[in-house]
């Protein structure tokens, strides 16, 4: 496969074809993230990318869903994304959907007409790292965008007809900011609901841990599993989105796997959290957790 390693994709893209349109992340300053620290951001020349697509087509000619990597593919100029989408449609006769990671800033830089054109070319799903709805937590982790702009990006994408799969990181504010992190995140989701919402649990890779902690000025104290469950409970209890949100916490980093649709399944999910808090054996063993 013509890939530059490391290569990341959302769990839901496990069976789909990955096309590496960019390398790395153009922002690459979130203090909790080590995914692209070893890479310099590069947008692949289209002639090289198209040759790789032809190579992938020989390996997986029946591919019907394509994920554009790396972490910043949606930041490419709209003209480039349209050309890539056209190449994929011409190469894969069964193509149904194209998806990509999208930073809030990348979504905001696209015009409504840009988003409509991309959606018409089957780029219909974007994965957005919300991380938190707390202004203080976002500032401390150097997310590069505040709560109002986060909400604006989510609303803009949904209005354009794009599906949004958003992620939140449990434990990102530590013990001191846990309540604010959970409550403010619920408020953001209620204001600008994505179609899918998933949680990850904070795991700091060694190469970013010192920098992450330094930005908290000695105020960060990591939560244990009971603290994470309490935070997750507060988050779910506060979620009352105006449109259904499919919720998952099945990523391997989570101590507790949950699945449901909010707000319909809120009572059941809260009961499952309460049960896991009382019976630790329901939690994922430490050795099975990871990024």
Which tags fit this structure?
291 residues, alpha/beta, TIM Barrel, eight-stranded mixed β-sheet, two-stranded antiparallel ribbon, 10 strands
Description:
The protein has helices at 46-59, 78-91, 104-109, 112-120, 135-140, 147-159, 178-191, 206-214, 225-238, 266-278, and strands spanning 17-20, 22-23, 42-43, 65-69, 97-101, 123-131, 163-170, 196-201, 245-248, 259-262. With 291 residues, the chain is an alpha/beta fold. The chain has an eight-stranded mixed beta sheet.
Q: What would CATH call the architecture?
A: Alpha-Beta Barrel
Compute the number of helices.
Answer: 10
Rg, Cα atoms, Å: 19 Å
CATH superfamily: Aldolase class I
Provide the low-confidence segments as ranges.
Answer: none
| CATH topology heading | TIM Barrel
Main pleated sheet: 8 strands, mixed
CATH level 1 class label: Alpha Beta
The coarse overall form would be: globular
Order of helices and strands: EEEHEHEHHEHHEHEHHEEH
- Per DSSP E runs of 2 or more residues, the count of β-strands stands at 10
Backbone structural class? alpha/beta
> Helix proportion of residues, in percent?
25-40%
The whole-number mean of residue pLDDT values reads 95
CA-to-CA gap between the ends? 23 Å
Write the layout of secondary structure elements.
Layout: E1 17-20, E2 22-23, E3 42-43, H1 46-59, E4 65-69, H2 78-91, E5 97-101, H3 104-109, H4 112-120, E6 123-131, H5 135-140, H6 147-159, E7 163-170, H7 178-191, E8 196-201, H8 206-214, H9 225-238, E9 245-248, E10 259-262, H10 266-278
Parallel strand pairs: 1-4, 4-5, 5-6, 6-7, 7-8, 8-9
Antiparallel strand pairs: 2-3, 9-10
Helix pairs in contact: 1-2, 7-9, 9-10
């Amino acid at each position: 496969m013509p890939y530059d390693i490391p290569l990341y994709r959302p769990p839901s893209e496990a069976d789909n074809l990955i096309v590496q349109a960019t390398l790395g992340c153009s922002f690459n300053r979130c203090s909790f993230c080590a995914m692209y620290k070893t890479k310099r951001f590069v947008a692949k020349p289209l002639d090289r990318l198209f040759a790789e697509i032809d190579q992938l087509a020989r390996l997986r000619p029946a591919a019907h869903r394509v994920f554009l990597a790396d972490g910043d593919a949606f930041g490419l100029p709209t003209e480039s994304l349209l050309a890539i989408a056209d190449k994929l449609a011409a190469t894969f006769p069964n193509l149904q959907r194209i998806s990509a990671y999208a930073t809030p800033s990348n979504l905001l830089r696209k015009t409504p007409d840009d988003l409509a054109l991309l959606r018409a070319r089957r780029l219909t799903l974007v994965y957005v790292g919300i991380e938190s709805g707390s202004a203080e937590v976002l500032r401390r982790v150097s997310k590069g965008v505040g709560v109002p702009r986060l909400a604006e990006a989510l609303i803009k994408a949904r209005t354009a007809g794009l599906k949004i799969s958003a992620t939140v990181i449990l434990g990102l504010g530590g013990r001191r900011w846990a309540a604010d992190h959970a409550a403010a995140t619920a408020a953001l989701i209620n204001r600008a609901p994505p179609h899918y919402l998933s949680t990850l649990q904070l795991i700091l890779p060694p190469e970013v841990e010192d920098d992450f902690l330094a930005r908290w000025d000695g105020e960060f104290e990591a939560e244990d599993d009971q603290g994470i469950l309490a935070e997750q409970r507060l988050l779910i209890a506060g979620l009352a989105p105006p449109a259904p949100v499919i919720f998952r916490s099945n990523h391997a980093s989570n101590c507790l796997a949950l699945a449901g649709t909010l707000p319909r399944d809120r009572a059941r999910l809260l009961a499952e959290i309460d049960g896991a808090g009382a019976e630790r054996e329901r939690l994922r063993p430490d050795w099975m957790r990871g990024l």
